[in-house]
Design goal:
547 residues, mainly beta, Maltoporin, Chain A, 22-stranded antiparallel beta barrel, 0% helix
Length: 547
């Protein structure tokens, strides 16, 4: 059987964005293949009003104001091809390949960049800035899944390749200041994963290994005139070899489902800057990740208690010594010395009839984030610098009710989140309360309507304090034969301003973004038949998330 589906989506906000996609799939007794392709042309407009204030070494108040309009235009092509062959029962051989090509242009136009020292205006000039980016990324996965006797075997080889070019131009209208940056990024990864599962006296024993090789090379070239910055041309290369092995046990005992696992990883990484290898001090190249879960499933009550220690390595895009110009008083700076993040997560999930509940506690070390700091040599320049937070914890509680009454299906969810973070003598612990509700109604004759609404309170997220936010969406749907029409409205007449404030190291920052988040959308989709793959390979390396 062969299936075909196509969709055309249009969203009108301040600008018009569109998406076109097609999917073809075929399945028979021995094979399944599918092909998909999509093209998106997006355009958004937003406004930014930023204020930064800090004291210099002499006690003078330095203030920088900027207000700008931002236009973001992007063209995205996505495509994928997959093939699965089943030469024998419980045996699958195949591949999955995906491609993404993007072209993005971001324009900033400011009526004024204002810099004051003790209330005296030192600079007041309009400026423009443009960022042009052309990223490309492809992922391919080859796999075998079968059995050797009673042992299940999976072999997966994942290959990731990508590159990007990026350029930015900064011009001040009232001065002769001009800065241009050109960059290139190339990266790749190959991960070979082997996993086995053997039944042993009512217990399922899993074991396996992973070998992952990856690299990332970044180049930055800066030219400037009428302005003196510390942005320097640089070339950096990161490389890593990762060896992992794991063992886990699954069992049913006393009416409960038990799981226990242990993963070991060894990491060998290198960092080269302008042809010179730089030594990076890391606590240890070894990492142990234990995990445990206990599940109960009754007629009305289902619950799972779990613990896991996980590791997240920093994105390669942050592991460099680059300094980028936001304007002549605000710089962005990476760090090649970021540490790996670890997370000890304890979680309870459950359902009782129509209620779902969740509770979790996370103790997190070395999260990478952006902090505000003074420039070492330029007293009037603010740095947005990538750093590691030594440790903090989060607490989350959630309750959801959902039910159906004939054609009407409502749901209500309440969630509470709080972080416990102290840094440099300051506390960042304002909690967030989030309320959301959804209501779906079948109207008959192919008509249906869905309404969603949510509210999130003022809260801290790491060092930033965000203002409260409302959002809603309404969707009216109609099915006519193989066609489905969806008309949606979202966030009309709501305040679109998002306030973010940060106070740290004697620096105060307030950034206000007028978001482009309201609009009217129409989606038209067409489908002939529906074909599902008998087997989907779910093995994937976590290293791919770093690119």
């Amino acid at each position: 059987m062969t299936s075909f589906s196509a969709s055309q989506y249009a969203l009108l906000q301040n600008r018009l964005s569109t998406y076109t996609g097609v999917n073809v799939a075929h399945s028979n007794a021995r094979a399944y293949w599918n092909f998909n392709a999509g093209y998106s042309r997006a355009a958004t407009v937003s406004g930014n009003s930023d204020y930064y204030g800090m004291l210099n070494g002499s006690g003078d108040l330095l203030e920088t104001f900027s207000s700008s309009d931002m236009t973001n235009r992007s063209d995205i092509f996505m495509g994928g091809l997959g093939l699965n062959i089943s030469p024998a029962k419980e045996t699958n051989i195949g591949f999955v390949s995906n491609l993404k090509v993007v072209a993005v242009t971001i324009d900033y136009a400011s009526e004024g960049l204002i810099h004051k020292e003790s209330g005296i205006v030192r600079l007041n000039t309009p400026y423009t800035s443009q960022i042009d980016s052309r990223p490309y990324k492809s992922t391919s996965s080859l796999y075998y899944n079968g059995k050797i006797g009673a042992t299940s075997v999976n072999v997966t080889d994942e290959i990731l390749l990508g590159s990007a070019t990026k350029s930015s131009v900064y011009d001040e209208v009232g001065t002769s200041a001009h800065a241009q940056t050109k960059g290139a990024d190339r990266y790749g990864m190959n991960s070979l994963m082997l996993s086995f599962q053997t039944p042993v006296k009512g217990v399922k024993l899993g074991y396996g290994a992973e070998l992952a090789l990856s690299f990332n090379k970044n180049e930055l070239q800066q030219t400037e005139q009428g302005i003196v910055t510390d942005v320097v041309s640089s070339t950096v290369k990161n490389g890593q070899t990762l060896l992992g092995t794991f063992v886990d046990v699954r069992a049913q005992w006393l009416g409960l489902s038990w799981y226990a696992g242990l993963r070991y990883e060894y990491e060998a990484s290198s960092y080269t800057q302008n042809g010179t290898r730089v030594t990076r001090q890391k606590p240890s190249p070894h990492f142990l990740s234990p995990s445990f879960s206990l599940s109960y499933s009754g007629e009305d009550l289902q619950a799972t208690l779990s613990y896991r220690k996980s590791l997240h390595r920093p994105a390669y895009s942050s592991l460099n010594n680059f300094t980028l110009l936001e304007n002549q008083y605000v710089y962005q700076q990476g760090s090649p010395f970021l540490l790996n993040e670890t997370n000890d997560a304890l979680q309870l999930l459950g359902t009782y009839k129509t209620l779902s509940f969740s509770a979790s506690y996370n103790y997190i070390r070395n999260t990478a984030t952006t902090a505000l700091a003074r420039h070492e040599t330029k007293a009037d320049v603010l740095l947005k610098r990538r750093i590691n937070i030594p440790s903090y914890s989060t607490l989350s509680l959630g309750l959801n009710w959902s039910d159906s009454f004939g054609p009407y299906s409502p749901s209500i969810e309440v969630e509470f989140q709080k972080q416990l973070l102290k840094y440099s003598g300051l506390t960042f612990d304002r909690p967030m309360l989030e309320l959301s509700t959804s209501h779906y109604v079948e109207l008959g004759k192919g008509w249906s309507v869905n309404a969603d609404a949510s509210y999130s309170s003022r809260s801290h997220s790491l060092f930033s304090e965000y203002s409260a936010k409302w959002s809603y969406s309404l969707m009216l749907s109609k099915e006519i034969g193989n066609f489905t029409f969806d008309l949606s409205l979202q966030n009309l007449f709501l305040d679109n301003k998002q306030y973010r404030t940060r106070r740290m190291a004697g620096i105060f920052a307030q950034e206000i973004e007028a978001q482009d988040f309201s609009g009217v959308g129409l989606n038209v989709s067409y489908r002939i038949h529906s074909v599902k793959a008998a087997y989907r390979n779910k093995k994937a390396s976590s290293e791919g998330q770093r690119f």
